[in-house]
């Protein structure tokens, strides 16, 4: 039985897919960032003209896009290890005419060249698990977040509690290749717990100034065809080594499996899969 594992959050995967990352994410990370940034805890640390925001593991700039709607002039650093992501971020910044935005290709485990305590707001939206090989990665990210957060600064870190869509991807894999163990995220079970996120932040230096909330977001698209098409964007990770004929069969099978999910719903203008996240808030 062959088993395929992938490195969750790996920057090389994201660099290759930077152009269609937003489609693949299908609003999932956006929906959670929106909830996090509109939470009363975050709002109690208002963004002002002197604020400096770190969009940590920024990807294509989903968090920055939300910040810029409310605060077009605030200073933002978009940082990510994947050069492709930073290129896409820059293209978006130009298109959206974001002002006061800089970018940096940098490892969130070691924010080299970034001074201590410079940021008023540090947001890490689904960038807390930089690969799965090094189990101390998230703690290293948390330590760096603590180091670069200024006095009276606030931090937001999000992680997934329930992805749900992976159940459909697995079921589809089993239908195409019944005798093969489907791909796995290769994730420690505890990384899906709120208590684990809280501990990383506490131990990184925030001590008892930490709260973790469970929130529900949604991966969504205008139609099931589009949603499945978006999921297929990650086929070389989930269905690595499949023949052209097998890949051709996947969308129909995947559609059926997505529809079977308890977390799947159809609304007037969209279809979607509920996704559940942990949102950690910490402050100095
Ligand atoms: C799931 S995406 C999240 C992107 C974005 N924050 C969002 O809200 O959609 C994870 C991001 O972490 C980045 N990443 C992975 N490992 C990293 C590391 N060691 N340092 C910095 N960024 C990293 C990836 O390149 C990718 O852009």
Automatic annotation (TrEMBL):
GO terms for biological process: methylation. This is S-adenosyl-L-methionine-dependent methyltransferase. Keywords: Methyltransferase, Transferase. Gene3D superfamilies: Vaccinia Virus protein VP39. One of its GO terms (molecular function) is methyltransferase activity. Residues 53-150 form the Methyltransferase domain. Pfam families: Methyltransf_25 (PF13649). SUPFAM superfamilies: S-adenosyl-L-methionine-dependent methyltransferases. The keyword Iron does not apply. It comes from the Eukaryota. It comes from Hyaloscypha variabilis (strain UAMH 11265 / GT02V1 / F).
């Amino acid at each position: 039985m062959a088993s395929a594992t992938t490195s969750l959050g790996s920057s090389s995967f994201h660099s290759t897919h930077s152009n269609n990352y937003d489609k693949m994410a299908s609003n999932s990370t956006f929906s959670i960032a929106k909830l996090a940034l509109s939470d009363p805890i975050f709002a109690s640390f208002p963004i002002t003209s002197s604020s400096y925001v770190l969009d940590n593991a920024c990807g294509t700039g989903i968090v920055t896009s939300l910040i810029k709607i409310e605060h077009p002039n605030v200073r933002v650093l978009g940082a990510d290890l994947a050069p492709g992501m930073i290129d896409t971020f820059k293209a978006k910044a130009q298109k959206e005419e974001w002002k006061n935005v800089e970018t940096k290709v940098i490892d969130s485990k070691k924010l080299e060249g970034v001074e201590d305590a410079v940021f008023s707001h540090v947001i890490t939206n689904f960038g807390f698990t930089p690969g799965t090989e090094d189990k101390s990665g998230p703690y290293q990210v948390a330590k760096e977040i603590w180091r670069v957060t200024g006095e009276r600064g606030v931090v937001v870190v999000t992680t997934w509690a329930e992805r749900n869509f992976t159940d459909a991807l697995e079921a589809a894999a089993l239908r195409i290749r019944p005798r093969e163990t489907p791909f796995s995220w290769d994730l420690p079970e505890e990384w899906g717990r709120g208590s684990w996120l809280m501990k990383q932040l506490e131990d990184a230096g925030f001590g008892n100034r930490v709260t973790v909330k469970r929130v529900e977001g949604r991966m969504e698209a205008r139609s099931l065809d589009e949603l499945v098409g978006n999921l297929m964007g990650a086929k070389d990770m989930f269905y690595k080594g499949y023949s052209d004929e097998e890949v051709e069969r996947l969308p129909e099978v995947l559609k059926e499996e997505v529809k079977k999910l308890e977390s799947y719903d159809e609304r007037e203008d969209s279809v979607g899969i509920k996704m559940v996240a942990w949102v950690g808030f910490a402050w100095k």
